[in-house]
């Protein structure tokens, strides 16, 4: 029974993390090249996004790692090729989180550093990696063995 509760909690925090990461991606992509760069409205949006990132998205990422590790131990999946591929995807999403958090910190700190043009690709990257992770978890493909 505890396994099912952990699994439900894992899905919940993953949804919170990926949703927050996607929101962060979209906000950063939206402010890049903004006509009103540095406006009070843009600054409020960036500060609100930073607060949400600190209060919800980042803790969700940490809980995703913690609960996912517990589930992998309980499931006896360490060493499974699909899990290794999934962990690579989760590491990549964690890296995206770190890059975007740094960009957001710079934008809210001095407002002078516009995000790089690669930020426009971040929403697509986030969805693609999350989709790959879901595929690996659901199918646990044997072709990776």
UniProtKB/TrEMBL annotation:
Binds 1 heme b (iron(II)-protoporphyrin IX) group per subunit. The keyword Kinase does not apply. It is found in: Cell membrane. Pathway: Porphyrin-containing compound metabolism; protoporphyrin-IX biosynthesis; protoporphyrin-IX from protoporphyrinogen-IX: step 1/1. It is a multi-pass membrane protein. InterPro entries: HemJ-like (IPR005265). Keywords: Cell membrane, Heme, Iron, Membrane, Metal-binding, Oxidoreductase, Transmembrane, Transmembrane helix. The keyword Ribonucleoprotein does not apply. The chain crosses the membrane at residues 12-31, 52-73, 79-99, 119-138. It catalyses: protoporphyrinogen IX + 3 A = protoporphyrin IX + 3 AH2. Its EC number is 1.3.99.-. It comes from the Bacteria. Belongs to the HemJ family. This is Protoporphyrinogen IX oxidase. It comes from Pseudomonas petrae. The lineage of its organism: Bacteria, Pseudomonadati, Pseudomonadota, Gammaproteobacteria, Pseudomonadales.
């Amino acid at each position: 029974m505890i396994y099912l509760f952990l699994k439900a909690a894992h899905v919940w925090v993953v949804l919170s993390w990926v949703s927050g990461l996607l929101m962060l991606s979209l906000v950063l992509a939206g402010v890049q090249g903004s006509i009103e760069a540095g406006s009070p409205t843009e600054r409020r949006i960036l500060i609100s996004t930073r607060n949400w990132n600190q209060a919800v998205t980042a803790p969700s990422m940490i809980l995703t790692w913690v609960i996912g590790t517990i589930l992998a131990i309980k499931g006896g999946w360490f060493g499974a090729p699909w899990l290794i591929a999934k962990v690579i995807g989760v590491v990549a999403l964690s890296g995206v989180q770190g890059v975007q958090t740094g960009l957001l910190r710079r934008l809210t700190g001095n407002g002078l550093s516009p995000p790089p043009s690669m930020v426009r690709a971040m929403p697509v990257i986030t969805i693609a990696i999350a989709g790959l992770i879901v595929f690996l978890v659901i199918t646990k493909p044997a072709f990776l063995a």
